[in-house]
Specification:
Layout: H1 3-11, E1 16-20, H2 30-42, E2 47-50, H3 55-58, H4 68-79, E3 83-87, H5 95-100, H6 127-144, E4 150-154, H7 166-180, H8 183-190, H9 217-245, E5 251-252, E6 254-255, E7 257-258, E8 263-264, H10 270-273, E9 281-283, H11 295-310, E10 319-322, H12 341-351, E11 356-359, H13 386-400, E12 413-416, H14 419-427, H15 438-450, E13 456-459, E14 470-473, H16 483-492, E15 496-500, H17 522-525, E16 527-534, E17 541-545, E18 556-568, E19 572-577, E20 586-593, E21 596-601, E22 603-605, H18 607-621, E23 635-641, E24 645-652, E25 658-660, E26 668-670, E27 676-677, E28 681-683, E29 688-694
Parallel strand pairs: 1-2, 1-11, 2-3, 3-4, 4-5, 6-9, 9-10, 12-13, 12-14, 14-15, 15-21
Antiparallel strand pairs: 7-8, 16-18, 17-18, 17-19, 18-22, 19-20, 20-21, 23-24, 24-29, 25-28, 26-27, 26-29
Helix pairs in contact: 6-9, 9-14, 12-13, 15-18
Length: 695
């Protein structure tokens, strides 16, 4: 466990429960602030994020400071035993700063400078903004370094967006010079001879623009990489005084998701960003009860996201920094959480390795764009609401299972997800232009394992692989230097690898591999790919399994979206296409390489095929299940492991009750009820059970 994060575990007993608190909005209402402290205890909330957008309250004029209100709030929280995650306020600057130093405001892709307003409307490159944020952060660190309530730094808020000003253009060129060393090499790697776009001077290069250059894929990719690197560099500038003044206090910044389909935020490469935080945290806002996706399916995608962020630092828990206790106000349809779903979704995050359940927001704002966003305390201002009582119930449950905090999750299987790969796939002029479904494919493979009770990590292709028995790498379109060698080494040592169509197409600069795909993966997979057929939504094909008896899966399965035409060289054919001009062609292959195996799925297989395929692999590889039973549809299980005990979460994401069987000889205690669990039991709709067993 990270040494800085371990200091949090020493200060905090159990889980963090609470969330974003904005007392600066209520300084003229002292009676409301007093009421907050009464309600916090009723809600069983123990942790609050302060000062996220408090800059103008702290520094109303340049160089004139007012910390009195923040002193008072922190002291009052400490007096009742609560904890503070103190934020740096760079996410929204005061009006005076933008007026006096207009260079801090962002310039959009259209090259127009923004006016003052909104959030994150600042240039990450601006020396002035860097100086101002560093100064205010130093003042905060020096003032509160020894405060008993302080447990963590919340650096800015939801970093995102990009700036195209002259300062950023020059920084981008310098970034490119460092990477490529010469224009000749840049022109080659960007393939600028296409459309006569060759650059003859560094000053000719600009960021992608809607009215200018936006069709050089390697340039688009490098710009996204630069934005990530420049954002991280700004963040490192922010934390420098925090590290200096409070070296033992951990820092985090809240990562995001994408909605309404539950996937990663695509503006930044969080795999790279995670290396610079002490604990990974993210803001989880799934759109529960949407008509286009069953609750259990959405829950699986939420689980994927939890496991993605958890896997970035496997030796310790992650944090849910924000979620809503009721609804948001920015979905197209802002649906309330139905009774029971808040408890279930809260404990789902704990089940996947979180040590917190924190909300945006504690009290609803009276004005502004988020005045109708869900909160623990509504405009009614009292505890007699359904939402408040459900939050209090979650707080009580977290207290009852507090010993689970700090424990971790162990996995023998992993799915590879790569931000740069997604950027490149999304930019490619190929396949179905508007729906290539990379993240969805990753989630389908993940779901096949999870529904069979297998714990799954979600990792970058650069992660250490030897801890796993099974690695799944869907649509690994971009193969960076060293990746093929690492995957091949994994298989040779006895690992099992599953890959899919549209893999091994390009290098890290989006240049196609000469000799065709799968490029450097060809020896590992034992096939080469000739072409790929994109199917219309109403088109389907069929594959016939058990070509040579090597793999015990029989019958026919439907395939959709993509059918790749591949040629086995040293691989065995396990399934063939039944229809179209490529009838009889290989659709599923396997190659044995020393002690391991590499499978290749040349088409988008239906979910049942994936489930049946992985059921056999799970048995073949003897992957350890959380519970060695057949799980009912819509029921998910997870396990956290401590020094002497294991903690099993059984979650029912169905709108109806289900009977849940337990393995023969099972013996554990249900922590929320105190009941001893041995045989089968009933899970109510949206029900959850947490069972403690001896290791």
């Amino acid at each position: 466990m990270n040494n800085r994060y371990s200091t949090v575990r020493k200060k905090v007993k159990g889980f963090l429960h609470g969330g974003d608190y904005n007392p600066e909005q209520w300084l003229d209402y002292p009676e409301i602030l007093s009421e907050d402290f009464r309600l916090m205890q009723l809600a069983h909330c123990n942790t609050f994020s302060l000062n996220i957008f408090g800059w103008s309250a702290i520094e109303p004029e340049e160089g004139k400071y007012n910390f009195g209100w923040l002193d008072d709030i922190m002291d009052r929280l400490a007096a009742q035993g609560a904890h503070v995650i103190l934020a740096t306020p760079s996410g929204a600057r005061p009006a005076w700063l933008a007026q006096k130093y207009p260079e801090v405001l962002r310039v959009g892709p259209d090259r127009k400078r923004n006016l003052f307003g909104k959030r994150h409307n600042h240039c990450y490159t601006s020396p002035v903004y860097r100086e101002k944020t560093r100064n205010i952060n130093r003042l905060l660190a020096e003032r509160y370094k020894d405060h008993p309530a302080l447990i963590m730094w919340h650096v800015s808020n939801e970093y995102g967006g990009e700036c195209h000003c002259d300062l950023c253009q020059e920084a981008f060129r310098n970034w490119l010079k460092k990477k490529y060393q010469s224009l000749e090499r840049l022109n080659h790697e960007w393939w600028t001879a296409f459309w006569s776009h060759t650059f003859t001077d560094w000053s000719q290069i600009q960021s992608p623009a809607p009215q200018g250059e936006n069709a050089i894929h390697a340039q688009n990719l490098d710009w996204k990489r630069f934005v990530t690197d420049q954002t991280i560099d700004f963040y490192l500038n922010e934390i420098a005084p925090l590290r200096e003044v409070t070296p033992d206090i951990p820092v985090t910044t809240n990562f995001m998701g994408d909605y309404p389909h539950m996937g990663p935020y695509l503006g930044l490469d969080y795999h790279k960003f995670a290396k610079e935080v002490d604990v990974v945290s993210w803001d989880a806002y799934p759109a529960w009860h949407i008509p286009m996706q069953a609750t259990a399916e959405l829950a699986a995608d939420v689980g994927f996201m939890h496991d993605l962020y958890r896997s970035m630092k496997k030796d310790q828990p992650f944090l849910v920094m924000e979620n809503t206790p009721s609804l948001v106000n920015w979905h197209q349809v802002n649906k309330m959480k139905k009774p029971g779903i808040h408890m279930l979704s809260s404990l789902q995050s704990i089940a996947h390795g979180a040590d917190s359940n924190l909300y945006f927001q504690w009290r609803k704002s009276r004005g502004g764009p988020e005045k109708f966003h869900g909160a623990v305390v509504s405009h009614a201002g009292h505890e007699h609401t359904r939402v408040f009582q459900e939050v209090a119930d979650v707080g009580k449950a977290l207290e009852e299972i507090s010993e689970i905090s700090g424990t971790t999750i162990q996995s023998e299987a992993a799915v590879i997800y790569d931000w740069e790969n997604q950027w490149a796939i999304d930019d490619a002029q190929a396949l179905k232009l508007g729906r290539k479904d990379y993240i969805q494919l990753c989630q389908e493979y993940y779901q096949s394992l999870r529904k069979q009770g297998i714990s799954v990590d979600v990792i970058s292709p650069e992660k250490h692989l030897d801890d796993y028995k099974l690695i799944i790498a869907p649509m690994l379109y971009m193969v960076r230097a060293g990746t093929a060698e690492r995957l091949e080494s994994f298989v040779k040592k006895g690992g099992t690898l599953v890959m899919t169509y549209w893999s091994g197409m390009v290098n890290e600069n989006d240049l196609c591999f000469l000799g065709g795909s799968p490029g450097p993966l060809r020896n590992l997979l034992g096939i080469w790919s000739e072409e790929i057929d994109s199917l219309y939504d109403e088109e389907k094909n069929t594959i016939i399994m058990n070509k040579n008896g090597y793999f015990p899966l029989k019958g026919k399965y439907e395939v959709k979206d993509y059918c790749e035409i591949i040629h086995p060289e040293t691989a065995h054919v396990l399934a063939e296409y039944e229809n179209d001009f490529y009838k009889g062609g290989a659709a599923l292959t396997v190659k044995r390489l020393k002690h391991g195996e590499a499978y290749y799925m040349a088409a988008h297989f239906e979910q049942k095929c994936l489930d049946d395929f992985y059921r056999i692999l799970i048995e073949k590889l003897q992957l350890q299940k959380v519970l060695n039973v057949e799980l009912p549809d819509g029921v998910s299980v997870s396990k956290r492991t401590g020094k002497n005990h294991e903690y099993i979460f059984i979650m029912n994401f169905n709108e109806a009750e289900v009977k849940m069987g337990l393995p023969a000889g099972f013996d554990g205690v249900e922590m929320l009820s105190g009941n001893r669990m041995k045989n089968e039991f009933v899970l109510k709709p949206y029900g959850v059970s947490v069972i403690k067993i001896e290791k």
